[in-house]
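Allow me, if you will, to draw on your knowledge of protein folds for a short while. The matter concerns a single protein, recorded as an amino acid sequence and a row of backbone structure tokens. Kindly check, if you would, that the fold set down in the tokens agrees with what the sequence suggests. You will find the record immediately after this paragraph.
***
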Amino acid sequence: MGLKEDFDAAAEEAKALPDATSNDDKLQLYGLFKQASVGDVSTARPGMFDPKGKAKWDAWEKQKGKSQDAAMQEYIDLVQSLKAKYA
């Protein structure tokens, strides 16, 4: 399979991660997913009344400048490591 197919498969696997997955891990997954699928963050940071939105925006912003292919590979690797961690 190609990188895009592996990424799509990992995205499906990520949906099955247990609820016990830490928020830090979930935010890292979110940031890598957005960077891989959209590219650099291009929206304004949410305000103080949206802490969840701010956390997600910050996670995506941390990936800024990373190529979409690199983000896809890191996402795939992270999903595999989390599956092993929470298995």
